[in-house]
Design a protein that fits this description.
three-stranded antiparallel beta sheet; about 475 residues; binds zinc ion; single chain; five-stranded parallel beta sheet
Length: about 475
């Protein structure tokens, strides 16, 4: 996290989203936020910027318990297996981090629950009667994977987390036609006294976050909805059977997992910058060094990285708006169809990377990144790419001539343009206007002239440069 000599500079926090441990990562995941965040982190570090990259895994969405129950397996065993595969694929793909958010670490769990308890005992977050729903038949509190219905904004089918159709917030309380996703039972109301975050009270601060940060067009369209409609009241913890257990004034409740994620983004940088910080106020103080936060995520999490997570930093006491922007992606298809675990239509990252050159995988998934539209992984394209690019990575200056149809003159890039291509590649890896697909194209053009083998762009895109050791978790 050190900047160039004599230029301390503020820290930019880059968030690699924590994958839920209800399955391994597939290459669609890699092509989205995971590789992009790692590449952007490496490029920023090479420019001498102070970056602090957070990665981790997410154990506490009840999608994990649902998966184990559906498979009839022990949930602890399931978490161990998928966590192992996810971290293995991070290592194989050379995805690094500065701080690992580990929900299975006792200190992490105590800190997350403790920060929420402090917000309640300090009076920042009120305890209020709140109407939740439970299933009339199986009794589960209806939230996240336990509930299914339709998004009230766009009508897409959704669970009680967020809408894949429009990126908006969904919960059992606002879904249309909600029912128990586990047994089909109808919802019945239940009133509990829980900590409630009234997001509307933070609108001024959120408006500053929204205006100052760089958001892609589709994210802005979600924000437009929230600009004219009231922001929801969100229960931060409540009685249920999965998640971090609370104590003190919240005994008997568990932290809602998006609340946990929001607090983890406060906790991680604080631990990295001031490991001795224990109280909420000390952790907030550690944030004096932080200039801003970039989230890399899928479109369907827009509500969380534009509204809930910035609001949690504000509630915790971070005095100024920290949102700097988001780099988002659309879905990646596999041979023309959506990735699907249930249909076993997937290329699992850890299996694919075990057999492939990680540099070519990183370059190809960046070249084909589904950033502007849904793009499609095909094995034929990937193989053609490897055949084209492998010699460019291995050769020195002026090696074999490029493959050109015999009746055409060679159309490789004139050497005089190579420097411009390399500059374009490096600038395309800035956080502002991040465009990995453009960076790869420019880099490959330069490499075809025999230049760029020692470039920042090649090092960041392939993961060749030195990074803090990936912890062996
Ligand atoms: Zn039920
Ligand atoms: Zn929707």
């Amino acid at each position: 996290m050190t900047g160039p000599a004599g230029q301390p500079g503020g820290v930019t926090v880059i968030v690699i989203p924590q994958p839920t441990v209800n399955g391994p990562l597939h290459i669609g995941h890699l092509s989205g936020p995971y590789l992009a965040a790692d590449i952007a982190s490496r490029a920023a570090r090479a420019r001498g910027e102070r970056v602090l990259t957070l990665a981790g895994v997410d154990v506490h969405p009840n999608y994990v318990l649902t998966k184990a129950e559906n498979l009839g397996t022990d949930v602890g065993e399931l978490v161990r297996t998928y966590r192992g595969q996810i971290v293995e694929s991070f290592q194989q793909a050379r995805i690094g981090w500065d701080f690992f958010l580990d929900p299975q670490d006792e200190g992490y769990r105590r800190s997350i629950a403790g920060m929420l308890e402090e917000l309640v005992t300090g009076g920042t977050v009120p305890m209020e009667e709140y109407t939740l729903h439970r299933c009339a038949d199986c009794g589960r509190t209806l939230h996240h994977s336990y509930v299914v219905g339709k998004c009230p904004v766009c009508g897409t089918g959704a669970n009680g987390t967020s809408c894949e159709g429009c990126g908006g917030f969904t919960s059992a309380q606002i879904l249309l036609d909600p029912s128990c996703a586990r047994c089909g039972g109808p919802p019945v109301e239940m009133v509990h006294t829980v900590p409630v975050l009234h997001l509307e009270r933070y609108r001024d601060r959120l408006a500053t976050e929204w205006l100052q940060a760089e958001w892609p067009a589709r994210v802005r369209s979600v924000l437009q909805q929230y600009a004219s409609a009231p922001l929801p009241d969100v229960p931060l913890a409540y009685p249920t059977n999965w998640g971090i257990e609370c104590g003190g004034p919240l005994a008997g409740m568990r932290v809602d997992f998006p609340t946990e994620l929001g607090l983890s983004y406060l906790y991680g940088p604080a631990q990295a910058l001031r490991p001795e910080a224990r109280t909420l106020a000390e952790r907030v103080q550690a944030w004096e060094e932080v200039d801003g936060v970039w989230h890399f995520n899928g479109m369907d999490n827009t509500f969380y990285f534009t509204v809930l997570y910035p609001a949690i930093l504000a509630v915790a006491g971070v005095p100024t708006a920290k949102a700097r922007g988001a780099v988002v992606n659309e879905l990646y298809l596999l041979e023309g169809q959506k990735f699907s675990t249930s249909r076993n239509h997937a290329l699992w990252a850890h299996e694919f990377l075990a057999a492939e050159d990680p540099e070519l995988v990183r370059l190809y998934l960046s070249w084909d990144r589904p950033d502007r539209y849904e793009s499609d992984f095909t094995d034929a394209s990937y193989r053609a790419f490897c055949e084209w690019v492998r010699p460019l990575l291995d050769r020195g200056p002026l090696a074999a001539a490029p493959v050109t149809p015999p009746d055409l003159p060679a159309r490789t890039l004139p050497t005089a343009l190579a420097a411009a291509e390399l500059e374009r590649a490096e600038r395309a890896l800035s956080l502002t206007g991040f465009d990995a697909a453009l960076a790869v194209r420019s880099l490959l053009a330069a490499l075809s002239t025999g230049t760029g083998a020692d470039s920042v762009a090649l090092a960041a895109l392939t993961g060749r440069d030195r990074r803090p050791a990936v912890e062996g978790r």
